[in-house]
Amino acid sequence: MAKNNPSLHVFATPDEVLRALAEYFVAAAGRAVAARGHFVVALSGGSSPKKLYELLASPAYHEQVAWEQVYFFFGDERNVPQTSPDSNYLMAKTTLLDPLGIRPAQVFAVDTRLPPAEAAAQYGVAVEEFFEEEKAEFDLVLLGLGDNAHTASLFPHTPVLHDKAVGVKEVWLPVEQVFRITFTAPLINQARAVAFLVYGAGKAEAVHQILELPRDVEQYPAQLIEPTSGPADWFLDEAAAKELQKR
């Protein structure tokens, strides 16, 4: 798949996968706060990350992170109001941010009141301004994987797959007749760490396609994720890993 071979972490059950990724999150946060005084994470949407956020906000983990030093961005967002059940922001707010008492100043949401292109451009500016003169280098980008091999909102056969700019773009999905906003692959690839959370038999074919089939980013967009800092970490259960030939 990548210039850096992926680092696979395979567990028997989804619960074990979630606990392992929670520990990984805690460790990454600790390293970042110790080194730079803050931890900057880009969150993912979807049902799998929801369970991770609930776990991180639970008594088992909420005291293990210096949450007042954590800044939250979103690797992608649906073009819906922030009050919509489909909003990635709302999901993170209800499962993670509000339970932990995160201050609004620590959270950077996409302004979906704007037209999609404008929302994407403004969010790109927000990322640039946060990192000031430095490279936009997230400490951690969390990603999921769709059964069609998309990640973030990098969908098959969309123009954003060929965007070489480090930034944020709007994506039109003709089949769904909707817009989404997404980090470009070059922005994701600048991160200090990238972690995929994937479980369930329904994702097994996509995992195989991304990790083992010849490169074809039009068909398998998650193959674009090649972090410059080192291998992406894949947190999988046995069901999602079952089609892999190499473990």
Description:
It contains seven helices and nine strands; from the N terminus they run E-H-E-H-E-E-H-H-E-E-E-H-E-H-E-H. 32% of the residues lie in helices and 18% in strands. It has a single domain (7-241), classed as Rossmann fold, CATH 3.40.50. The protein is of the alpha/beta class and 247 residues long.
Keywords for this entry:
6-stranded parallel beta sheet; 9 strands; alpha/beta; 247 residues; Rossmann fold
Structural domains: how many? 1
Largest sheet: 6 strands, parallel
Please provide the count of β strands.
9
Q: What gross morphology would you assign? A: globular
Per CATH, the architecture is 3-Layer(aba) Sandwich
- Number of separate helices: 7
Text of the CATH class: Alpha Beta
Topology record:
Blueprint lengths: L6 E5 L2 H23 L2 E5 L3 H10 L13 E5 L1 E3 L9 H13 L15 H16 L8 E4 L24 E6 L4 E6 L1 H5 L4 E5 L5 H9 L20 E5 H4 L6
Parallel strand pairs: 1-9, 2-3, 2-5, 5-8, 8-9
Antiparallel strand pairs: 4-7, 6-7
Concise overview:
The protein is an alpha/beta fold and 247 residues long. Helix content is 32%, strand content 18%. It contains 7 helices and 9 strands; from the N terminus they run βαβαββααβββαβαβα.
